[in-house]
Design a protein that fits this description.
Elements: H1 20-23, H2 27-33, H3 39-47, E1 51-62, H4 65-71, E2 78-88, E3 91-100, H5 102-107, H6 120-124, E4 131-140, H7 147-153, E5 159-168, E6 171-179, H8 181-184
Protein name: Probable chorismate pyruvate-lyase
EC number: 4.1.3.40
Family: Belongs to the UbiC family.
């Protein structure tokens, strides 16, 4: 698994429907999970210039099987996998994983394959025809994260996340975001 992800020892389990546990989440966490606009824009609104992106993983690799099924991709074909840490002054806020199929990169004129530390949201939300196709939710237990993530962030509790399939000019990409405890603390 380490060659497919910096973040996960095993892929999270996703649900398209709200669960009973999800309905008991704090209003603050619910608002992040259900955000319909740009996460980047919201984080910049809160943290300003202190907000940043750290690139953790950027490789052409096969995606997880469930990601391939969702995007209707052959499981062995390589996709661009990008994993990042969104932070403010080094304080970890969000762990994110993006699956970018080659046709999507081509239709976006390669703007998506060379982001570096630039937030994905700044690029995709600039497309006037960006379409949100579906959203799923997951609760990742501490045992699902790699030792590298545990060393960096020391996740001692389950972390909730969302996974959204977007389309640009009809071509899909998949963005998963996990909201870390520091994001939900008062600034």
């Amino acid at each position: 698994m380490p060659d497919k992800s910096f973040l996960f020892k095993r892929p999270p389990l996703w649900s398209a429907h709200e669960t009973a546990a999800q309905r008991r989440l704090t209003p603050a966490l619910q608002s992040w999970l259900n955000e319909t606009g740009s996460l980047t824009k919201r984080l910049r609104g809160i943290y300003g210039n202190r907000f940043g992106v750290e690139l953790l993983f950027h490789r052409w690799k096969p995606a997880f099987n469930d990601e391939c099924r969702l995007l209707q991709l052959p499981p062995a074909r390589y996709q661009l996998i990008r994993e990042v840490l969104l932070h403010a002054d080094g304080r970890p806020l969000v762990l994110a994983r993006t699956v970018l199929p080659d046709p999507t990169i081509k239709i976006a004129h390669r703007n998506l394959s060379h982001l570096g530390n630039r937030p994905l949201g700044e690029v995709i939300f600039a497309y006037p025809d960006l379409e949100r196709r579906q959203r799923q939710f997951s609760r990742a237990e501490p045992s699902q994260w790699t030792p590298a993530v545990q060393t960096r962030i020391a996740l001692e509790q389950a972390v909730w996340g969302r996974r959204t399939e977007y389309a640009i000019h009809g071509h899909s990409l998949l963005v998963a975001e996990f909201f870390l405890p520091a994001l939900l603390q008062k600034i």
